[in-house]
Write a structure and sequence with these properties.
Belongs to the Nudix hydrolase family. It comes from Massilia varians. This is 8-oxo-dGTP diphosphatase. Its cofactor is Mg(2+). Keywords: DNA damage, DNA repair, DNA replication, Hydrolase, Magnesium, Metal-binding, Mutator protein. The structure is a single chain. The protein is an alpha+beta fold. The chain is 23% helix and 35% strand. It has 3 helices and 7 strands. It has a 4-stranded mixed β-sheet with strand order 4-1-6-5. Strand 5 and strand 6 form a beta hairpin. It is globular.
Length: 140
């Protein structure tokens, strides 16, 4: 294992707020990571890093305004997952969001798609188990 990989694995995780926008029919919004970012081209749930002294849900709301131009009105905390990538150790806080204002727009040049059967590929590694879990709770 490289020295960089050892350092990344032992580093404090970066907190990330992640939103699962869910339509009444159960479809969820996935976004494609833009060029210039690690895992460019991979699909994931939208979200972003939590700033110092920022509440996780407020970070989620801020990220959705910045990335998609929508205002998330409410979100239910769903789960928290840690994942170690080669470039970062992240702690992902997932919220299921069923109420928002506006229609998603590509404000950062990223593609996005409403998905029910998950036909986009490739999926970000930390996203795959969440989609499997989500299929079990989707219509509850």
């Amino acid at each position: 294992m490289s020295e960089a990989a050892v350092t990344t694995r032992s580093a404090k995780p970066v907190d990330v707020a992640v939103g699962i926008l869910m339509r009444p029919n159960g479809d969820v919004l996935l976004g494609q990571r833009p060029d210039g970012k690690p895992y460019a081209g991979y699909w994931e749930f939208p979200g972003g890093k939590v700033e110092p002294d920022e509440d996780i849900f407020h970070a989620l709301q801020r990220e959705f305004v910045e990335e998609l131009g929508i205002k998330v009105l409410s979100g239910a905390p769903w789960c928290c997952v840690e994942h170690v990538y080669e470039h970062a150790h992240v702690r992902l806080y997932f919220y299921i969001c069923r109420e928002w204002e506006g229609e998603p727009q590509s404000l950062e040049g990223q593609a996005f798609a409403w998905q029910g059967g998950y036909s986009v590929s490739p999926l970000l590694p930390a996203t795959i188990p969440l989609l499997e879990w989500l299929d079990r709770v989707r219509f509850t």
